[in-house]
Structures are given as C-alpha cells and as structure tokens.
Amino acid sequence: MKKLLLPALIIAMGAGAAVAGNMAKFNETAYRFDESQGLCIETEQMCGEEETNPVCTWSADNSVELQRFISPTECGKVLHEILP
What we know:
single chain; alpha+beta; two-stranded antiparallel ribbon; 6 strands
C-alpha cells in the first residue's frame, strides 16, 4: 500500500502546482485606453488570456474593453474575464 501511496501523492502535488502556476501566469492587471488623454490607464481589475471566455470590460463603463499594458501611451491585446 505504501508503494502506491507515495508516488500517487507526488503526482497529485505536481499536477496541483502546474495548474496553480498556469492560473497565475494568465491573470494580470487590466488597462483601458483613454483616447482624450492618449494614455493606457490601469484599472483595478484582473483579467486573463483565455479567449473562450467573454471579453473583460471596465466596471465603470461596460462598453470599454480592457487590454494588456504595452507602454504609457499604448495598450495591447484585449483581455478576457477570469471564470471560476
């Protein structure tokens, strides 16, 4: 019994760590582009890259899609909601 339990426990721990690592890798702070200022502005929302999820929108204005930060004057790829 001990011969099976230890390898199974090690495999389960490795799989759990891999899933946790992938989730952290895809979650990031989202930004919105303010056209009047020409700036990429940080929001207090977290979004991800999973393209099958709905597009992440700004909580203050649902018509604004949130994006990845590239530079102070440029936002990049549209991000997606993080679903449980």
